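User: tokens in, sequence out, please.
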């Protein structure tokens, strides 16, 4: 049994090397490698949708997607797409449906959960999934308690509920409200087939609070690929067109390692940072293949 497994692994690696010249075949080889080592690209695929006119006009920087992408990557999952869209119902519906067609494991939206009329993320989610909107009693209780607490703390002039506050409890049918430890609008979780959709507030502190309290553990439990590992070396060469030849050869030999150079510009120091990244279940194996790829690139550059 061991000999057969070793034979399969060797054949996959050899095929990946030969196939590098053909992008389509190379990607198929990568899929074979991930399957052989127990990975499933789609099952740890994450898409982020940032919603808000203030984002697309440049008035507010989209720091939410940057934070989420980094945290998700560090957890061993893979962000394949980040969308920044207007808080227009048709745009929300279109982007969600497009994302769902690709069957990701997780979609995270940020923004559009508040009490104003332009906060229409949940309406868009309901329409995209073919669900009705309904008042959620758990969400309503969360909102009432939160406003009452803020009133007792002297942060608000009124306690209780009004129409605008009640609006934040109107969720797609089957959705689950998630406690917001910072603000007033609950987060929302809803499933569509194998895809989980988390809707988070757009205020960064609220988004981070819900992510750290609820989604961090969910990702580790459900879709984490295990270990994410990255190393960087600085190369005394600031011409990517020259360095690319060596990077391509190292990537061909180690297709499970993502190798990316990062130029500083010709007016900066005459060097490049090169990053080596890989993920997998086995920490020692992941680190080993990154170190081998890095060692090979250093050797190629030294011997030029």
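Assistant: Sequence out:
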């Amino acid at each position: 049994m061991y000999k057969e497994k070793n034979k399969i692994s060797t054949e996959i690696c050899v095929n990946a090397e030969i196939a590098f010249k053909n992008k389509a075949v190379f990607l198929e080889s990568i899929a074979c490698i991930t399957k052989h080592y127990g990975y499933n690209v789609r099952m740890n695929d994450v898409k982020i949708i940032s919603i808000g006119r203030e984002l697309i006009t440049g008035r507010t920087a989209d720091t939410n997607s940057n934070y989420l992408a980094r945290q998700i990557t560090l957890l061993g999952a893979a962000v394949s797409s980040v969308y920044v869209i207007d808080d227009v119902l048709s745009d929300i519906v279109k982007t969600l449906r497009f994302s769902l067609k690709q069957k990701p494991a997780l979609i995270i939206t940020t923004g559009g959960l508040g009490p104003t009329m332009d906060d229409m993320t949940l309406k868009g989610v309901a329409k995209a999934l073919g669900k009705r909107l309904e008042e959620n009693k758990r969400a309503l209780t969360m909102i009432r308690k939160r406003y009452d607490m803020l009133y007792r703390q002297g942060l608000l002039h009124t306690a209780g509920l009004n129409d605008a506050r009640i609006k934040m409890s109107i969720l797609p049918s089957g959705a689950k409200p998630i406690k917001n430890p910072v603000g007033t609008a609950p987060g929302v979780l809803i499933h569509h087939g194998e895809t989980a959709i988390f809707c988070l507030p757009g205020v960064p502190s609220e988004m981070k609070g819900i992510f750290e309290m609820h989604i961090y553990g969910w990702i580790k439990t459900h879709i984490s690929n295990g270990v994410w590992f990255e190393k960087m070396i600085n190369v005394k060469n600031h011409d990517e067109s020259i360095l690319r030849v060596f990077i391509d050869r190292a990537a061909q030999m180690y297709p499970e390692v993502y190798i990316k150079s990062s130029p500083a510009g010709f007016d900066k120091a005459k060097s490049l940072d090169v990053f080596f990244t890989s993920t997998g279940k086995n920490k020692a194996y992941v680190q080993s293949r990154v170190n081998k790829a890095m060692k090979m690139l250093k050797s190629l550059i030294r011997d030029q």
